[in-house]
Amino acid sequence: MSTGRGEIVFVTAQWKGEEDIWWIGITHCCDSPVLVCNEGEIIHPSPLPSPTDKRIPDAIREDLEEAKICFSVNAYRACAVIARRAIQSTCIDKGATKDNLCDQIQELFSNQIITKDIKEWADVVRWVGNDAAHAAAGKVDKEDAEDILELAEQFLQVIYVAPAIAKERRSKIGR
């Protein structure tokens, strides 16, 4: 049986209720037990986040990993705030000197460190992260947090991981 996240689970026990089917299984990837509802919604333990690329600087990687953990335990506001923090830490790491994140993102764009599209990704993370941090703003739901987390991770992939991969390949072929 598949959990819907691509994991294959060996079913060891199953119960059929009036509306739901519950089963206990063992994941193929890590031999861990899981409680699953219906067609693959893992109930327990909370799904662990995917690992973050080691080529992202430690402090920024830790922020992204914390945002992923927040998401995995349904702490969607916290996820958005910490994802925003990862964007701001990246701006500072890449030389932004302005006082606020809006200006820092613009600074990276003006200095041609990021493209217009990547600037838009960062701005969306900033908007949702700002809303999440302020009591008067609206709710951050699962879809919001999932999108923000994806945008933040892709931002970091473009800023850190892709250049590192290119550098590794250039070194390997001697160019």
What do you see in this structure?
With 175 residues, this protein is of the alpha+beta class. The protein has 2 domains: 9-44, no CATH class; 58-173, Nucleotidyltransferases  domain 2 (Four Helix Bundle (Hemerythrin (Met), subunit A)). The protein is 53% helix and 14% strand. The chain is built from 5 helices and 4 strands; from the N terminus they run ββββααααα. A 4-stranded antiparallel β-sheet has the order 1-2-3-4, with no helix packed on it. A hairpin with a 5-residue loop joins strand 2 (21-27) and strand 3. Helix 2 (76-93) packs across helix 4 (116-133) and helix 4 packs antiparallel against helix 5. The termini are far apart.
Straight-line distance between termini: 47 Å
Mean pLDDT: 87
Instruction: Tell me the total number of β-strands.
Output: 4
Give the overall form.
Answer: flat
CATH superfamily of the largest domain: Nucleotidyltransferases  domain 2
- Low-confidence parts: none
List the defining traits of the structure above:
2 domains; about 180 residues; alpha+beta; 4 strands; Four Helix Bundle (Hemerythrin (Met), subunit A); flat
SSE topology:
Blueprint: E1 9-16, E2 21-27, E3 33-37, E4 41-44, H1 58-72, H2 76-93, H3 101-110, H4 116-133, H5 142-173
Antiparallel strand pairs: 1-2, 2-3, 3-4
Helix pairs in contact: 1-2, 1-5, 2-3, 2-4, 2-5, 3-4, 4-5
